[in-house]
Design brief:
With about 190 residues, the chain is α/β, with parallel strands linked by helices. The protein has 4 helices and 7 strands.
């Protein structure tokens, strides 16, 4: 298969993803906040499968909402329909997202390998927001320019010291639920 055909196939896949996004975005306007007071912030992630997978985990853990910074669209297919169930708040800049969350009383945490305190040694407040950066470049801002943002890391013992962003999101949500999980009538979980 030649490069021209590959480009055409990639364009067709992107067009299908954009159609799926528009359909589910319309349903997302009716999404209700999850039962837990935590939020996820996705800072300039690629529009490929990680965003959908993070929505899937966030919905499973009862996350209140997801903030998307610098993301116009993404492929919701890997989320298995979760995009329509968890509120999505889109921001052009991180400053807009930061202001929104601080005004709601959230404590903000950036997950960065090897920086800050271990999630296992941190008492997370009920209103916690977890910031996940771009898969290659990390976060798009300097945390020290935004008062109140703390760095956390997920303990790792291998040589690579790197986790996929959707895996890291699931781990921090699990730790939050471990500390603050609650039982509701529908879901006899934590």
């Amino acid at each position: 298969m030649g490069p021209h055909k590959v480009r055409l196939m990639m364009k067709a896949e992107r067009d299908m993803a954009a159609r799926r996004f528009r359909r589910q975005r319309n349903k997302n306007y009716l999404a209700k906040p999850g039962i837990h007071e935590c939020a996820i912030v996705l800072d300039h992630l690629k529009p490929s499968y990680n965003i959908g997978k993070i929505f899937r985990s966030a919905e499973a853990f009862g996350t209140r909402e997801i903030h998307l910074v610098g993301i116009d669209f993404f492929d919701p297919a890997p989320g298995m329909g979760a995009f329509k169930w968890i509120p999505a708040i889109f921001h052009k800049t991180f400053f807009s997202c930061y202001t929104n969350l601080i005004n709601k009383g959230y404590a903000l945490y950036v997950l960065e390998p090897g920086k800050g305190q271990s999630i296992a040694q941190t008492n997370l407040p009920k209103k916690s927001a977890f910031i996940l950066g771009h898969e290659e470049f990390g976060i798009s801002f300097e945390p020290n320019l935004f008062p109140g943002i703390e760095c956390l890391n997920i303990p790792q013992f291998g040589k690579s010291q790197s986790l996929n962003v959707s895996v890291a999101g699931s781990i921090i949500l699990y730790e939050y639920i471990r500390q603050h999980g609650r039982i509701d009538k529908k879901n006899q979980g934590y």
